[in-house]
Specification:
The complex is a heterodimer of chains A (about 425) and B (about 220). Chain A has three domains: about 1-205, no CATH class; about 220-285; about 295-425, Heat Shock Protein 90 (2-Layer Sandwich), CATH 3.30.565. Helix content of chain A is about 70%, strand content about 10%. Chain A is built from 15 helices and five strands. The longest helix of chain A has about 80 residues, at about 175-250. Chain B has about 220 residues and is an alpha/beta fold. Chain B folds into two domains: about 5-120, 3-Layer(aba) Sandwich (Rossmann fold); about 140-215, Orthogonal Bundle (Arc Repressor Mutant, subunit A), CATH 1.10.10.10. Chain B has helices spanning about 10-25, 35-45, 65-70, 90-100, 110-120, 130-140, 160-170, 175-180, 185-200, 205-215, and strands at about 5-10, 30-35, 50-55, 80-85, 100-105. The longest helix of chain B is centred in the C-terminal third of the chain and has 14 residues, at about 185-200. The relative contact order of chain B is 0.11. The chains are: A alpha+beta (about 425), B alpha/beta (about 220). The interface of A and B includes residues 243, 245 and 296 of A.
């Protein structure tokens, strides 16, 4: 005692509040705490688990009632009631482990108080009571924080010891046995829970990483597209600036007003270019553009035959069908249409090698319709196609391009095992 | 003496525009228009222009490869002036390494355009020295840039020639170098000529690129 007092005096400042916090902590932990939610996959199985536990517990319960009535001399009424609480509590523990544990513990005390034992064996727990108490502790350790499990374990053992000392007529070594059983049970439960928690964290981490990656992919794709479109604008702007300079040379005696006007156009074009260069500098990333792309003009639908020819060169059967009156569209639409077809073709090559492809381009009054569809790949190649994972990047890009132009996009499997990509790009007023 | 110019660009508006602007200058004559890189290479052989205005992005054969082919001959006379929408671009730097003598923004004014053609044709100074220097400094320092093939060795230069080379690389014209070293401009011209011969370089732009890439000049401030 004096030692404790010394410690209290020495560190009174810290230990005092810590001790005062104990009841509150216990109340929070052992009264209010909620068990971990079941893993998503398990939730559906909860009724089945309850049933399974009920079946397992049923014989133990019958045995427990018998023991309570005869071995502990509780009589019919109290014996049945007190004997049936622990098994019911263990079944209930699947849903709410904490109240279940309380029920088992309190029952244990009641039995100890009311018992008129015929033999000193297994006191204060009946044999089955010990097993059910351990089961309740196990479920609790499985579903709740280790600290709560440790507290429950400590209280179980403490209450058992008090019951033994206060009520047992003789010294009973069963308490040590119970302590050992409870400790091992709680330890195993806590360890299993720890493993589950770690796995859940891993899964959550993986989900987060995947989400992060897809967000980054989206951003990269948008940046790439924005860059291309800005690039097109910049080229047109530089032509405007040249033309505005050239125009006065084309008339014999240009008036001052005309010169001034053209100078204004040029100034604006040059300013716009300066802005565009800044934007493009921001959008430029280290690795986004292949060298070939910057050395050649941005593609338009005019180069569609060339593209298709390249794919045919890879030994793929490509059928092109162009409907409507072919005419030049706004550069953004032309570029996007070309890229969409290009991505769709490369997707087919990647994911359905050997499939025949049909490319349809429809020039309509208000929009451009694109459809790239492929037949089912030959059976032998399906495995190879499935192996070529990492798709979706192309689709993402197509979707983004179409969205930027205010068009519609759809993709999905078609009857017969093929796949199709359909896009409709509005032409707007500019074309 | 008029400077004979060939314009290579796939956009007809650009070709015609530059033709009008350059033909308005008394000392410059546009002798031909090429629609792509292959066309440009063929027309250079045929027309022997002094300066080629070369777009970087062209179908069939891009401007950089076309520049390489045009300036690749030992006796190639045509100087290439690269047209670009974006300055300080690694492709512009590629073009310089491929043998271009300078670069110009497509939206340059008529005066800038004519000036660029004259400077490149004369070869006495770097075009847009500050910008060119920055471009070279920026890209020469990038890791992974293959070193220029060691045509000649910097060790072959005399001390004075090395000094002149570093001044060229800093964008100084012959006249400025002469003033700085307190010698006649003709002497500087002789030095420059010897440097180019010893290092097998075609002009001072190439000399500047060489000086940065071989480490004679250490880019500062980047």
């Amino acid at each position: 005692m004096s030692g404790v007092d010394q410690v209290r005096k020495g560190r009174g400042g810290r230990i005092g509040p810590a001790l005062r916090a104990v009841p509150r902590t216990l109340r929070d932990d052992l009264w209010r705490a909620r068990p971990d939610p079941l893993p998503p996959g398990w939730r559906d199985w909860q009724p089945a688990m309850v049933l399974l536990v009920a079946f397992a517990v049923f014989p133990t319960g019958i045995l427990g009632i018998n023991q309570a009535i005869w071995q502990y001399g509780l009589g019919q009424g109290p014996g049945v009631v007190l004997g049936s609480i622990p098994p019911l509590a263990v079944v209930y523990a699947v849903r709410r482990p904490l109240p279940a544990w309380w029920a088992v513990t309190v029952t244990m005390v009641l039995i100890a108080v009311l018992a008129k034992p015929r033999s000193p064996q297994m006191y204060p727990w009946t044999g089955t009571g010990l097993a059910l108490h351990a089961a309740a502790l196990f479920v609790l350790a499985l579903r709740m924080r280790p600290r709560i499990a440790a507290e429950a374990l400590a209280i179980s053992v403490l209450v058992g010891a008090v019951c033994t000392v206060a009520a047992a007529p003789v010294h009973n070594p069963d308490l040590y046995q119970a302590t050992l059983i409870f400790s091992v049970t709680v330890l195993v439960g806590a360890a299993l829970r720890g493993r589950g928690v770690a796995r859940n964290q891993l899964v959550a981490q993986a989900e987060l990483t995947a989400e992060e990656r897809s967000r980054r992919t989206l951003l990269e794709e948008r940046t790439r597209i924005a860059r291309e479109l800005h690039d097109v604008v910049a080229h047109h702007m530089s032509v405007i600036s040249i033309q505005a300079q050239v125009a006065p040379h084309l008339v014999d005696d240009p008036s001052d007003a005309l010169r001034e006007n053209l100078a204004g156009i040029r100034t604006n074009a040059v300013d716009a270019l300066a802005e565009l260069r800044r934007v493009l500098g921001v959008l430029r990333s280290e690795d986004d553009l292949s060298i070939g792309m910057r050395h050649t003009p941005q593609p338009t639908l005019e180069r569609l035959p060339e593209l298709v020819e390249n794919v045919r060169g890879a030994g793929v059967d490509v059928d092109t069908r162009i409907t409507g009156e072919r005419r030049p569209l706004s550069p953004g639409v032309e570029l996007s249409a070309f890229r969409i077809v290009q991505e769709a073709l490369s997707n087919v090559l990647r994911h359905a090698p050997g499939a025949a492809i049909r490319v349809e381009v429809g020039y309509q009054a208000t929009g451009l319709a694109l459809r790239v569809a492929n037949t089912a790949p030959p059976a032998t190649d399906v495995a190879a196609a499935a192996g070529a994972a990492g798709g979706g990047h192309g689709l993402l890009g197509m979707r983004e391009r179409v969205a930027m132009l205010g068009g519609e996009f759809a993709d999905g499997p078609i009857p017969g095992g093929g796949y199709e990509v359909v896009a409709r790009l509005p032409l707007g007023s500019g074309s | 003496m008029t400077v004979r110019v060939l314009i290579a660009d796939d956009q007809v508006m650009v070709r015609q525009g530059f033709t009008v602007l350059l033909n308005a200058e008394p000392d410059i004559e546009v002798v031909g228009q090429a629609v792509d890189g292959l066309d440009a290479v063929a027309m250079v052989d045929e027309l022997v222009p002094d300066v080629v205005l070369m777009d970087i992005r062209m179908p069939r054969l891009g401007g950089i490869e076309a520049t390489r082919r045009i300036t690749g001959h030992a006796d190639a006379a045509a100087k290439v002036l690269v047209l670009t929408t974006f300055d300080l671009d690694e492709y512009v730097y590629e073009a310089l390494r491929a043998g271009a003598s300078g670069f110009l923004l497509k939206d340059a004014s008529a005066e800038e355009l004519a000036h660029a053609v004259r400077v490149v044709a004369a070869g006495d100074a770097l075009l847009a020295p500050n910008l060119t220097k920055r471009l070279i400094a920026e890209y020469a320092r990038l890791a992974g840039t293959p070193r220029m093939p060691a045509k000649g060795r910097i060790g072959d230069l005399t001390e004075r020639e090395t000094e002149v080379l570093s001044l060229i690389a800093q964008g100084l014209s012959n006249a400025e170098i002469a003033a700085g070293l307190v010698v006649a401009e003709q002497t500087v011209k002789t030095h420059v000529g010897r440097i180019l011969v010893k290092l097998s370089l075609r002009d001072r732009t190439q000399a500047a690129v060489y000086a940065y890439e071989c480490g004679l000049i250490r880019p500062t401030g980047y």
